[in-house]
């Protein structure tokens, strides 16, 4: 089959990478065609703090010796891919990314008092409380234990914004990212210090995770999560954690709300009940029906979003591959459905293998747009049978107070007749 | 079980992250202990071209407001992880990395005339020759086709060095790296331009892949690889290809020798026989027995290497997790065995799931070193039944001329009584 008719093949697209094709497709005209396009644009590279002008483009790059290798590579100065940052957070540019791995320097950030400067040579992790052998571990100690690596997403439970049409996936839900995390299983350390499967009187145990940042970020976590799949992580995407991600050591709780994966981890205390910290009382709770408040809502509910086409791109009629991400904190994604008629009919999207547990999954669905105004949206179902709800279903479940955490509604994009793609802000606050 | 006896837990290790532990493990002494350690070291960060001093370490980081988020993250100035670079190549620091993903700026490079400056706005890919519809594709055209993502390794067929004891994994075989690649299947473009499954007279077809660099790097590839799993890649680890990796578009042939994954791809010509280019006659061939030369040896043979412990680390007696990477260009790794007694006995190592096709796999094996001098080594077996050979087996198969390509011998590390780990250069050239 052919995705473009010949004419489209020769017609420049409305795209920043637009190019005109020579009418005659010989190699001579190919190179000639390229040679006729002058490059005026000058921009900076995204290497922090450095200004690199775009190198002059030779008419024929094969006639100029290239740049030799260096100690580290760099992005192309033609690529502007950055996070939108505020004083407390920065958001991953989901609409600009491909596949499922987030480059470490584009992983979202959400801090409660900024990124502390911690010296790995003096770093220590204390594990104490209801344990047989209170112990302080150096970074070197932690790296000597048996290690584990896992590709998984990390999402902030406050990852939802709406309110206007001109919002990109980054603005709507850019507080989710994915990395390959490496560290030691917390269960290994629990055995090392002598944590009993549950506390003395049989009540389910808890532990306090405390960060070394200026907010002393602290959360109470059920012991079972520590025994299950918690990781004391010191590496991300092959290299040491980035400072913004908890360098030198963070807690990583697969599938749980981001704030529980405490960064710059300095202390774990084992006890038999939650500590009722600031971050689980005044923050990170949701209102539910009847004016009640839901506390300790750890699991990230299944969610999906179409990242292409999405604001700010403009599309042309014809074949479009709808692309997006889907994930669930409760296990594997089993189904992603896409609607191209505002939710009337749904079709199964293709999932990129391998589909991993508690991980972002790339979904794709081929669609031929006829140029008529419509809405496109996606919904995910995970292995527990949970299906991503609509905004109305969430409001109904939460009652008047929508809280603002764990808000994962189906996200719809309006496709205008001129090809503009806009957020559908059905849900003004 | 306990991996350290108590004494070890309190004893500083011979490690750059060395720290002393307070004798009494209360939180007060923990912080007090940290506060007594002054930080004198000053080094530069690895953000290319920028000098960033290490921030002064507050006695208690919780008492100082941290750094707010930015548009892109940075490495910790305490982490020096770089590639060893020459005029023609740079090598991934395998001994410093964790898991299986290689950060894009640490992916190895091997160029034949440097990195060209290519403007994505004028980039074009010509597909012509024995096709029904010769076509020029812009970058925007390529991005509109159905896409695919795949985590796979890329290795240079010349990835072997030895000759002295003081060599790290980076120096021995740092010309292999792993990324998640995204692009359009070449088979999709073959259908678009009308390539027949094989050429008119029934002979197996070939295509020429030509790069836009100053070497006009060119290789002849059997059509079947294009129909099988070849990718026209425009993204790597979530973002656009790096310039050093072929920006804006490269050919990616999973499991095949790196030079065939032609970077800065500008032309594909379909024909019925190989072009006998410079890179498949004077280069990238191996001598075999009887003075013959092996040509078109595309597949990367199965290989493994222990990356920890490895030169230059020094270890202490006690529990050590042996860690390494294993891969095969012919499919999945099914078995990695580790010997800790110079090859007399072999034990099955643990493989980190998921084990992917034609991908680096992280293996681990727990070992208690008694302090006696020994040698440790690993060998891999892939799903075809092929087992990584010894150096002697390779020399025997190749005859006098070892060629230098596709040389994948078992790599052994000497463990000295003082804990030094040294390459075993049994195979001086």
UniProtKB/TrEMBL annotation, chains A, B:
One GO MF term:
heme binding
Keyword tRNA-binding in annotation: no
Q: Tell me, what's a Pfam family for it? A: Oxidored_molyb
Q: Where is the composition biased (Polar residues)?
A: 1-10
- What segment(s) does the record annotate as region Disordered? 1-26, 52-75
The record's EC number reads 1.8.2.1
Cofactor(s), names only, from the UniProt record: Mo-molybdopterin
Record-given protein name: Sulfite dehydrogenase
Species, as recorded = Spirosoma agri
Q: Which gene encodes it?
A: soxC
């Amino acid at each position: 089959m052919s995705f473009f008719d010949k004419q489209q093949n020769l017609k420049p697209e409305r795209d920043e990478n637009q190019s005109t094709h020579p009418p005659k497709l010989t190699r001579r005209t190919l190179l000639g065609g390229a040679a006729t396009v002058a490059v005026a644009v000058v921009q900076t590279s995204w290497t922090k703090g450095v200004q690199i002008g775009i190198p002059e483009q030779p008419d024929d790059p094969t006639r100029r010796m290239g740049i030799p290798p260096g100690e580290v590579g760099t992005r192309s100065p033609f690529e502007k891919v950055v996070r939108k940052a505020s004083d407390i957070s920065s958001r991953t540019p989901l609409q600009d990314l491909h596949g499922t791995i987030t480059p470490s320097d584009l992983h979202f950030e959400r801090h409660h008092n900024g990124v502390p400067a911690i010296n790995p040579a003096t770093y220590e992790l204390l594990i104490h409380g209801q344990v047989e052998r209170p112990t302080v571990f150096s970074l070197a100690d932690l790296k000597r234990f048996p290690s584990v690596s896992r590709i998984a997403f990390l999402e902030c439970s406050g990852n939802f914004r709406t309110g206007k049409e001109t919002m990109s996936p980054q603005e709507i839900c850019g507080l989710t990212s994915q990395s390959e995390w490496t560290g030691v299983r917390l269960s290994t350390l629990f055995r090392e210090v002598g944590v009993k499967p549950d506390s003395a009187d049989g009540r389910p145990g808890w532990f306090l995770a405390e960060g070394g940042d200026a907010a002393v970020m602290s959360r109470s976590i059920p012991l079972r999560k520590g025994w299950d799949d918690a990781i004391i992580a010191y590496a991300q995407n092959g290299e040491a954690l980035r400072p913004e991600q908890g360098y030198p050591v963070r807690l990583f709780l697969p599938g749980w709300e981001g704030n529980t994966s405490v960064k710059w981890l300095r202390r774990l205390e084992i006890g038999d009940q939650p500590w009722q910290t600031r971050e689980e009382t005044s923050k990170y709770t949701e209102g539910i029906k009847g004016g009640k408040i839901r506390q300790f809502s750890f699991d990230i509910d299944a969610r999906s979003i179409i990242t292409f086409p999405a604001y700010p791109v403009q599309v042309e009629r014809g074949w479009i591959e709808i692309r997006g991400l889907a994930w669930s904190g409760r296990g594997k994604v089993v189904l992603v459905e896409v609607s191209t008629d505002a939710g009337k009919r749904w079709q199964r999207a293709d999932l990129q293998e391998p589909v991993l547990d508690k991980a972002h999954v790339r979904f794709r669905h081929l669609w031929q747009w006829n140029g008529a105004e419509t809405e496109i949206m996606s919904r995910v179902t995970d292995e527990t049978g949970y299906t991503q709800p609509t905004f109305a279903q969430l409001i109904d479940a939460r009652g008047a107070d929508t809280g603002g955490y764990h808000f994962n509604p189906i996200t719809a994009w309006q496709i205008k007749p001129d090809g503009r793609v806009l957020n559908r802000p059905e849900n003004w606050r």
